[in-house]
């Protein structure tokens, strides 16, 4: 059966898992870590770095290191979230060609799906190294509250990375799958997922025989550990300003150091009551004097700084319970997911709201990837008994006259689902009708997210009102929206032109995919070369050590001199191949080097 990996593409960390012999397991990366930072960098030499190596050089290469790209995926340039990111990020964010967002790394612009694709590709490589075979199918998770644009952009990222994303599933749902997997429980659970960038709450009914039914979901895709870090940074920056009248934000390197220190302090305060933030030589005073930042942060101050953020998650929980038409007492288990749920204040806020101790039995960093792997295995194995019924987090509708939002599919409807609506022409001989499709909860169209402009073209010429077009709005199991149209009288499918609002065009995706593939080939070639070089150099070293001895022993015979000549030639050829960085040629010489080394050892051993 074909192997399907599950990838949790996180704001801060990503994780990949697979089901092996019926058991879901997380795949460690080469460093042995089970999660990989979702960071991408380009070095001065133009080399791409992903994961831990990107994180390790973030401070010295702040401008060319991307973190939290997921907060930008599928967003429009003019959105408030993008404005926020532009103002606070240490890397450069610019406007793209479709009102979208591009990130500049060493003078080259990358789309956000391209950046996410680098992380996905890394996860693919981690899985391939572990499995020893290539992997092409994946289930990728997204925050439950992601809208269609964000889901579509994530799918594009998968495609750019060379992955066939067979399903997109919601992170809290994946967590619930992993929590309930193989336990045959019947329970109503709430999954509270507070990660680095996003917050989600989902309420599910887990039924016997592997039925997972989501009843309601909600969240905030711009609310996470990043925002709590930002509060600490603000606190540090304003304290420093008061003391020295210098704005640390002007300096990208200082900003990156602050970010690091803020996150570290936050994590420490989950286990201790106070911690010291210590950043020597953070900036120069301008009078050739280095300034240091040193401040004590207590858990209480952190809780005050982040109080409203925690409160926001609780408000969303309250709303979701109402949407699910359930009382707190009907929630039998609250499952905590995401790194932020290690913060004591968050645990106590959740406990106070649900009036029960939350379950900390699942691994907050790994459970989402495990759930994705479980879903992946179930999709390719028809013997698996598992039914997953998720919902759409946003209402789907269209813009009507007067800028109103007409809801067609309500929030929390089980997906896949569809809804049809008849449109008629309003003028004689009208040949085109434009439909603005949007997602959101507001009655005012402009407050919702525009998904696309669908233009029905080439309509029959007829007096107004006589052409009736049936339009079908569909949300598939990935939560992705599509629109089809049919002329009711002729029964003909009507063509629809979709104007991407912030997504990439097919051609762009194709080019980015080719680039990503080239990059992977380059990387594989480099790795292959490095491995061959290492092996060859080791052999050369040992041969050279033996040379003087061997020469002494065999130089008296013609045969011996000949053997030495040959050995020198092999070593020279290997050296030249290393010099040329020619992996195949180096590999070719390894056999000769091995033979020579064995012969030399034999000669020396005999005497
Ligand atoms: N011990 C801890 N105390 C407090 N916060 C922590 C701790 N450990 C990790 N975190 C925070 O958890 C966040 C990362 O969580 P996680 O890895 O679940 O997020 P993610 O999956 O990358 O993001 P998202 O799901 O939002 O896309 C970071 O903000 C990190 O600082
Ligand atoms: Mg997460």
How many separate domains?
3
Gyration radius from CA atoms, angstroms: 29 Å
What's the oligomerization state? single chain
Helix content estimate: 25-40%
Strand content: 25-35%
* Arithmetic mean pLDDT: 93
The rounded distance between the terminal residues' Cα atoms is 57 Å
Can you tell me the CATH superfamily of the largest domain? ATPase, nucleotide binding domain
Instruction: List bound small molecules.
Output: adenosine-5'-triphosphate, magnesium ion
CATH architecture group name of the largest domain: 2-Layer Sandwich
Shape: globular
Sum this structure up briefly.
This protein is of the alpha+beta class. The protein contains 13 helices and 28 strands.
Structure description:
The protein has three domains: 4-224 and 308-389, 2-Layer Sandwich (Nucleotidyltransferase, domain 5); 396-504, Substrate Binding Domain Of DNAk, Chain A, domain 1; 508-606, Butyryl-CoA Dehydrogenase, subunit A, domain 3. β13 and β14 (199-207) form a beta hairpin. The strands form seven sheets. Strands 1, 2, 3, 4, 11 and 12 form a six-stranded mixed beta sheet that branches. A five-stranded mixed beta sheet has the order 18-13-14-15-19, sandwiched between helices. The chain contains 13 helices and 28 strands. Helices cover 40% and strands 27% of the residues. By secondary structure, the protein is an alpha+beta fold. It is globular. Bound molecules: adenosine-5'-triphosphate (ATP) and magnesium ion.
